[in-house]
Amino acid sequence: MVLALVMAGGKGTRMKKNQEKPLVEVRGKPLIQHVLTAIHKSSKIDEIVVATSPHTPQTTKWVKNAKISIIKTPGHGYVEDMAFILSQDDLKDQIILTITADLPLLTGEIIDQVLNYYQKCHKPALSVMVPVEIFHKHGLQPSMVWENLVPSGLNILRGKNTEQDEELLVIGKIEVALNINSPEDILSLEKLGVNSRR
Q1: Under a CB-based contact definition with an 8 Å cutoff, are residues 12 and 82 in contact?
Q2: Which of 21, 82, 96, 130 has the fewest Cβ atoms surrounding its Cβ within 10 A?
Q3: Longest dimension (CA), the chain
C-alpha cells in the first residue's frame, strides 16, 4: 500500500505574498492542484493525505472541499512536522511517498518511475535528487546543493519515526527541479513555455 503525503504546511515566506503558498496560482491553478493532478495520474498510489498546519488554514479548507484526507501538523518546520507524521500509529509500515506542494511540473509518469525504482532498490527509504546542472541550464537557484545534487521534494519513507537506510535516485528533469519558492521561480516557470505543460 502506497500513501502519497503532500506537505502543505510551510510558511512560504519567500513568496512575499499574503496568500498561502500551496494556493498561489501558476498556469491557472493553485500549486497544490498541479501536484494532486500528478498523483491522481499515477497508477501506483493507493491513498492521498495532505499535511497542513496552523500556517495554512485556507489550504486546509481547500483540501477539505476537494474531499481529500488531511493530517494537521504543529507547523514547527518541515523536519519536525515529518517526524510528527511518522510517529502516527496508523502509518506504521506503510510506504509513504512525500511530495512538497510546490512542484507544478510533476507528472504521474515520474511518480511511477520513482516508485518502480523504489520497489527494486530493497532499502526502506529513497531520496530523489536532481543534478545541479539542470538548475544552471534553466537559470534556477537551487535551495541546497550536496555533492552536485539538489533535493527534489520527492522522498519515500516507511511509516516509522526512526532513521532509515536510504537509496538515492538521480533524475535529470526540470519537472522535479522546479519547485516554486519565490516570485522569481514563477517567472522561470513561465519562461519554460508550452513545452513543459502537462
Answers
A1: no
A2: 82
A3: 44
Cα–Cα distance measured from residue 25 to residue 32, given in angstroms and rounded to the nearest whole number: 9
pLDDT in tens, 158-177: 876 566 789 999 999 999 99
Q: Residues, the chain, total?
A: 198
Model pTM?
0.90
Q: Checking DSSP bridges between strand 95-100 and strand 29-30, what pairing results, if any?
A: unpaired
Question: Could you give all domains of the chain from N- to C-terminal order, each with its CATH number?
Answer: 2-196 (3.90.550.10)
Element housing 41 (H / E): helix 31-41
- Among the listed residues 124, 123, 8, the one whose alpha carbon sits nearest the alpha carbon of residue 61: 8
